[in-house]
Each structure stands twice: as structure tokens, then as C-alpha cells.
């Protein structure tokens, strides 16, 4: 297995840093190839601007067509092209980050904004009366798997259906479904650590064991059963889920996960 770890934490000695290091050593010891994109160590530029597209930037700047023109011409910046090549190389992508203000750190969102360019991660495929492009279960990254390894400061009870922060599945849905599944990645259930700032050295031994177990089963873990856009479940072009396909009692984000 070829694994790319996209790591977003400013402190190498953090819990996130330890989980990243453990992922590298565990996977390599099992005979897998591993590459790491350490975004803070790379001084990753988190903002999209005209400099990303060189002479292919429109004036005034329109990000989507500029991004697509530069991608088609092989003229995206070297660091963006390198990350796209890593994604195409990988069988599995691990995203290691802390949940900050209910989402990923800005530097990781900026990695997505720049690397998931037009004609690479979106704007792919034919749009007609039966298809609406290759996305949500199809696309450039089809055949690869992704998993989020996320640390959270609060207790698990606050991230449930009645918890004040809402279900963790709902908080991660925009990343799982809107960022990862959109260009074709199969999304595995996340590895979530709660009370991250309060994990003792003794507790970390148990955390490490559980993380290693997840790492060594990434190839066989069933992905989240998101519905494919072009499978017939959605009306086209409205992309509304057809009536009657949902299981009783399901609503919201859960409608887009197949029952059973």
C-alpha cells in the first residue's frame, strides 16, 4: 500500500505529531510505502491568488477558469503539482489534524483550495441529461481511500445527537462528502480522539494501540456508504434524492448514506 499523510499541526511534539509519526513507523514496518506532506514544515501557502496560475490567470482574477487553464497547461506552481502527483501516487490518504473551530486548520483548507484545482478535482467529466460530471463517487481520485485522524479538545458526549456541538458525523460531513468523496475518494470512518489536551502518557499507550489497529486494517475497512451521484439515486439535473429511497427516520446529511 502506498500512503500519503497530509499533516497539519504547528508543533512536532504535539499529540498530532505523535500520531503522524506512529502512522509512518507502523505502515513502514508493515512493508508499505509512506510519503508525508507536513504543511507547516513546508511553509505551505494557504491562500489562492493569481500567482498560482502564472500567465494563465485571468484579469480580473477568476479562480475557477484560471485554475483549469493552468492545470491543463501543466503550469500550476511546482508545489501544487507535487501534491497532485502525490495524490495520484497514493492508494490511501491519511489526513492528520486537530479540529479547530469545527473544521480543519486554515493551512489544510488552503492545501485543499490550491491542490484540488479545476479539471483535477472538479469540473471533470461530461454533463448531460443523464450525468452531471464525474463527482461524488467518481472522478480523478477514484480507486483511492481516505481517512481522517482528528483530535478534539472536548469530551465525546458533546459531539453526539444531543450534544451541544452536534454529531461528529455531521461536523465531518462537509470534509468527508464535499471534499473527499466529491473527487472519487472512498472515505473510511474517521479515527477521532476526544479530550485530546488531557490524554496522559499512560492513556496514550491505549490510543497508540487503537491507532495501529486502524492503520493495519485500512485496506479492508468498509468505507462510508455514500450514495453515488450518477447511480440513479438522484434526479438530474436537480440532484435531489429521489423520494422513497431513504430509510425510515433518516434526514439531513444521513439521507446521503445508503442504509444497511
Task: Describe what you observe in this structure.
This is NAD(P)H dehydrogenase (Quinone). Belongs to the NAD(P)H dehydrogenase (quinone) family. Keywords: Oxidoreductase. This protein has 260 residues and is an alpha/beta fold. It has a single domain (2-256), classed as Flavodoxin domain (Rossmann fold). Helix content is 29%, strand content 12%. The chain contains six helices and six strands; from the N terminus they run βαβααβαβαββα. Strands 1, 2, 3, 4, 5 and 6 form a six-stranded parallel beta sheet that branches. Strand 4, helix 5 (168-181) and strand 5 form a beta-alpha-beta unit. Helix 1 (15-29) crosses helix 6. The longest helix is centred in the N-terminal third of the chain and has 15 residues, at 15-29. It is globular, with a radius of gyration of 19 Å.
List the helices and strands and how they pair.
Blueprint (H helix, E strand, L loop, with lengths): L1 E6 L7 H15 L3 E6 L24 H10 L5 H12 L2 E7 L7 H10 L29 E7 L16 H14 L4 E2 L3 E3 L7 H15 L45
Parallel strand pairs: 1-2, 1-3, 3-4, 4-5, 4-6
Organism: Micromonospora rifamycinica
GO cellular component, one term: cytosol
InterPro entries: Flavodoxin_fold, Flavoprotein-like_sf, NAD(P)H_dehydrogenase_qn
DSSP E strands, number: 6
> Biggest sheet: strands, sense, closure?
6 strands, parallel
- CATH hierarchy: architecture: 3-Layer(aba) Sandwich
Q: In percent terms, what proportion of residues is strand?
A: 5-15%
Class from secondary-structure proportions: alpha/beta
Radius of gyration: 19 Å
- N-C termini distance: 28 Å
CATH topology: Rossmann fold
Q: How many individual helices? A: 6
- Give the SSE string: EHEHHEHEHEEH
* Shape verdict: globular
At the first level of CATH, the class is: Alpha Beta
Outline the low-pLDDT stretches. none
Q: How many individual domains?
A: 1
Portion in helices: 25-40%
Look at the structure and give the mean pLDDT.
95
Keywords: Oxidoreductase
GO molecular function: NAD(P)H dehydrogenase (quinone) activity
Domain Flavodoxin-like fold: 1-215
Protein name: NAD(P)H dehydrogenase (Quinone)
